Amino acid sequence: MDNLSLVWHRRDLRLDDNPAVHWAWQSGTVMGVFIFDPGILYSPETGGGKVEFMLGCLRELQANYRQLGSDLLFFYGDPPAVWQKIVNLCKPQRVFFNEDVEPLAIERDRRVKEVLRELGVEVRSFWDIGLHAPQELQTKTKEPYKVFTPYWKNWQSLPKPKPYDRPTRRMAAPQFSTMALPTLTDLKFSHTQSIPKAGETEAQRLLEEFSHPKKILQYKQQRDFPAIEGTSRLSPHLRFGTIGIRRLWQMTVEMEGDIRTAEERSSLTTWRQELAWREFYQHVLFFFPELAERSYQPRMRDFPWENREDYFQAWCEGKTGYPIVDAAMRQLNQTGWMHNRCRMIVASFLTKDLLISWQWGERYFMQKLIDGDQTANNGGWQWSASSGMDPRPLRIFNPATQAKNYDPDAQYIRTWLPELADLSTAELLTGTIAARKCQDRDYPLPIVNHNEQQKKFKSYYQKK
Ligand SMILES: Cc1cc2nc3c(=O)[nH]c(=O)nc-3n(C[C@H](O)[C@H](O)[C@H](O)COP(=O)(O)OP(=O)(O)OC[C@H]3O[C@@H](n4cnc5c(N)ncnc54)[C@H](O)[C@@H]3O)c2cc1C
Q: Hey, which residues are catalytic here?
């Protein structure tokens, strides 16, 4: 068809604040495309909860296209081959998409660009997943950053892009017969998680909820307490791109007018810093793609991990006998999300107490987290395992101290371990629960001794 532009959606499942959509809408008739790529869909890291969330986002995105007289078309297969078919079927003049930062996605996009150009289709790609593309920031010696603090100083000093308007121009798009949006069962997935609501409308509601009762201005005081709803819960939406990063930044700029105290200012800065952490991990994986496969610190590359399967199983199921660890793993398994403080606690526990390789934990998180994202997940795991880019690498979390500091009334533990709800707060925080009480409640005794295990970890670490 003359003057048809296609927008290839991948991790940007929205119309608002979307550069590819915005520029396509300037160009003529627009339709959306989504390709179910079996290479990603059936990789061991894709869990049913995540797929269901994605299907929910796609359903709303298709309805939004249809409201404007257009449509979102679905295809299945290896993207370069599928694009040949799409070009034969739809005869587009242009294809627009937003770039990715993960090594395999970069390679896929390179192959697709090649195919499209050979077929004579114009291709335009944009940076969308962060406020700043990885190449926009470099050290004074023109190197990529390896340390967060100087990255953050530079990042926050740069002017930030404005959001793109949501398209409103209606159009009469052509009809093509392609596959319907599949169901979870069609894709041969199932899950037992009670996952969060998907889609653009929900992402905007969460943003409103975080900014309008001004939760963001108490972020610094509240964000470390897993029993409090003190964080934005936007991570699954950032992962699937149901909200634009420029909208989030704009919200923080608007909130500046509401700041009354130094504490409130500091909360706003801390939240912006989290957005910068996200981009720091994008930056480092872009420049050091080998991090996807191995530890950044050479001393950790041949660390003698013990990798006991039975300990790993207990950790996955939330049956280690350490209540704060088990509560967090149950939250993950049941909801597909885990509080950041708890992600750090369970990651430290897996690596430093159970002596299991961080890659095992990284993989499990990717299967279960709806927000599972290679850059943030790899960065978080390498930070926790002391194998990453951290100037102060060796830190070992004591689960009891963490529980006492961040869940002082054991409210979070009681929520996720209802079988222990009647025990005293002291028992839940320290994890010293009498054997008989554990047995009555079908709860395990601690599978390892924290003090002994951390000594063992340190001895292995110091020998390196
Ligand atoms: C071991 C480990 C694994 C992790 N895996 C992931 C993952 O797969 N996907 C993911 O999005 N986050 C991951 N994180 C980071 C963090 O835990 C989550 O982003 C956060 O808990 C999401 O909740 P929120 O949206 O309420 O965050 P908020 O506190 O409201 O923060 C806003 C946004 O900033 C970003 N962000 C916040 N903290 C971090 C951080 N430490 N690193 C990078 N980005 C951050 C997220 O996009 C988040 O949605 C991981 C952290 C650790 C320690």
A: 274, 277, 305, 340, 358, 381
CA–centroid distance, residue 340 to ligand 1 (Å) = 6
Long-range contacts (CB closer than 8 Å, 24 or more residues apart) made by 356-365:
356/305, 356/306, 356/307, 356/308, 356/311, 356/312, 356/315, 357/303, 357/305, 357/307, 358/295, 358/382, 358/384, 358/385, 358/387, 360/307, 360/312, 361/315, 363/44, 363/45, 364/316, 365/332
Minimal-distance CA residue to ligand 1 atom 26: 233
Predicted confidence (pLDDT) at residue 355 exceeds the cutoff of 70 = yes
DSSP label at residue 392: S
- For the segment 30-57, what is each residue's pLDDT rounded down to a tens digit? 999 999 999 999 999 999 999 999 999 9
Q: Could you tell me the pTM of the whole model? A: 0.97
* 235 CA from centroid of ligand 1 (Å): 6
Domains of the chain listed by start with CATH number: 4-128 (3.40.50.620), 200-287 (1.25.40.80), 298-463 (1.10.579.10)
The residue type found at 210 is: F
Q: How confident is the model at residue 463 (pLDDT cuts 50, 70, 90)?
A: confident
What confidence tens digit (pLDDT) does each residue in 385-443 have? 999 987 777 899 999 999 999 999 999 999 999 999 999 999 999 999 999 999 999 99
Query: Which pLDDT score, from 0 to 100, does residue 1 have?
Result: 66
Please give the average per-residue pLDDT across 90-96, as a whole number: 97
Answer whether residue 146 shows pLDDT above 70.
yes
Please tell me the residue having the least CA distance from ligand 1 atom 37. 274
Q: Is residue 449 over pLDDT 80?
A: yes
Residue whose CB lies within 8 A of the most ligand 1 atoms, among 274, 369, 386, 395, for a mutation test: 274
- Residues with Cβ within 6 A of ligand 1? 223, 231-235, 238-239, 274-275, 277-278, 281, 340, 343-344, 347, 365, 369, 371-373, 376-377, 379-381, 384
